[in-house]
Specification:
Distance between the termini: 49 Å
Number of helices: 8
Order of helices and strands: HHHHHHHH
Radius of gyration: 20 Å
Number of strands: 0
Helix content: over 70%
Structural class: mainly alpha
């Protein structure tokens, strides 16, 4: 792949920042970086998204910085971050003024609920598309389910779930001699029966 220009990185993230809404930004990021521009593979995108979810701050901004860094180093990270944040800065400043001056807040609340519903659908569709390509076996599905249950059902904190599920998954995917993996998997499945 030829070197991607800083201006191209800024332009793509500026467009994503200006046209994406709420949590639906994941769908826009994947569409732009993986599908249209082919700057990242699905696996690279998932790795960067996983890392951005574990860092403090906004996931979209974290993802922009990580993707920009991967594409062009520090200048790419800065260009992606500014491109991603600039539209939100301008639009949220204007929305704050409008919200403070607007007397019919129920209409604004209804609009925000509609945007939240659409963003949830976009996130679900994106993660389904990524999951189809990356979840290839029992262990992957098990760790995804363990993380979901830990956070949503058992109400554990995200860092605790990430550290515990992450440690077990690293152990499960550790390098082995050829053939050892099958023996362990069959023994583990037999122990569950």
């Amino acid at each position: 792949m030829s070197e991607i220009s800083i201006l191209a990185i800024f332009g793509v993230f500026l467009q994503i920042g200006a046209t994406s809404f709420g949590g639906g930004v994941v769908a826009y990021l994947r569409s732009a970086l993986v599908t249209k521009k082919k700057w990242l593979t699905d696996t690279e995108f998932l790795e960067l998204m996983s890392l951005s979810n574990t860092l403090p701050g906004l996931n979209a901004t974290n993802m922009a910085i990580l993707a920009g860094q991967r594409l062009r180093g520090t200048p790419g990270a800065v260009a992606a971050m500014i491109g991603m944040c600039l539209p939100a800065l301008i639009l949220m400043t204007a929305a704050g003024f409008a919200y403070g001056a607007e007397g019919s807040r129920p209409l604004v609340t209804a609009m925000l609920r509609g945007v939240a519903a659409a963003a949830t659908g976009l996130i679900a569709a994106t993660w389904y598309q990524i999951g189809k390509k990356t979840v290839k076996g029992f262990y992957e599905a098990f760790f995804i389910l363990a993380a979901i249950l830990g956070i949503n059902y058992f109400k554990l904190s995200v860092p605790i779930v990430l550290l515990s599920v992450g440690a077990v998954s690293i152990f499960a995917f550790r390098p082995r001699k050829p053939g050892d993996h099958r023996k362990e998997e069959h023994a583990w499945i037999r122990s569950l029966q």
